From TrEMBL:
Keywords: Cell membrane, Membrane, Transmembrane, Transmembrane helix. One of its GO terms (cellular component) is plasma membrane. The keyword Membrane applies. It is found in: Cell membrane. It is a multi-pass membrane protein. It comes from Burkholderia cepacia. Pfam families: BPD_transp_2. The chain crosses the membrane at residues 12-29, 35-56, 63-82, 88-108, 115-133, 153-180, 212-230, 250-272, 284-305. The keyword Transmembrane helix applies. This is Leucine/isoleucine/valine transporter permease subunit (Transmembrane abc transporter). GO terms for molecular function: branched-chain amino acid transmembrane transporter activity.
Amino acid sequence: MKMTHRRRDFMLDISGVVVLLLLLIVPFASADPFMYSLVGQSAIGVCAALGIYIMLRLGLLSFSAPSFMALGGYAAAIAANAGTTNLVLLMLISAIVPALVALPLGALVLRLKGVYFIFITFVFNEILQIVIFQTPTLTGGANGITGVPPALLFGMGATSPATVVVVTVAICIVSALFTLGMTHVLRPEFSSIEENETLAESLGVAPWKYRTIGFVTSAAVSGLAGFALVNMLSTAHPSSFTTWSVNSYIAYVFVGGRGSLLGVVVGSLLLITMNDVFSSYAQLSSGLFGLLLVIVMMIAPGGIVGTLTNVFDKMRVRHRGVLQPRIEDRRA
């Protein structure tokens, strides 16, 4: 049964990557600027939400995604302005810088649990915002860093809207594959820590070790999301990485389903699309978006993908329960 569940979870995660691959078709099948914008926003949203998803697999809710996005985005912007425009190098820079910051930070904050951990990661966002504003020579301060050169894709500048979207989705796919590989290789340890940390520790699992791995990986993935955002806007600005933006990323994960990568993708695509639809209703947009969240969470408390998966599992068990007596009767 455990192997069946593990195989099912792996297929759900692979399905999430497949959906992201399908987004690559949009730039070649459409010339609509709205579609370009929607796909770009969705890819960045998925990438940012993956950082939240990784920590939730360890039973921790982290609010630090915007700060790591800012570190990755600003690091890439500074490197690009200094002449480093190779896409692979910029991706490495935007992932490594926040990961290096997360390593010592994790040694401090991962000792905390529950609301204390949430509070410290929330405060870290505010501290980083102050640092950005107080270092104008490096970060541009309140004006940010403008005119960031586009990343080079196969030696060509990603200047056209279609190419920018391709690069953005490609960054998201790399992040998703990295997340998939890490969470499945360490799945037993992550699951045991999430379910019962004390029991896991008694069985020889070191929670601090795997939480540090998860925290650093989450920071790296969030940094890639920050780079994707800066590359799409050609600007690194403090307003792109506000503390409250994390609420959206958390909503993507919980609405889609925190148990699988597909849930993150579905939640991000749904909420970002509906947010664009509701924006045409001006003052009603926030209320409509909030109402959508309430309805989805009432109907599918485990997230859309999580709830559907549970329904299918129950149907399969019930179907087997009906077939088993028939098979035994035939044998008799």
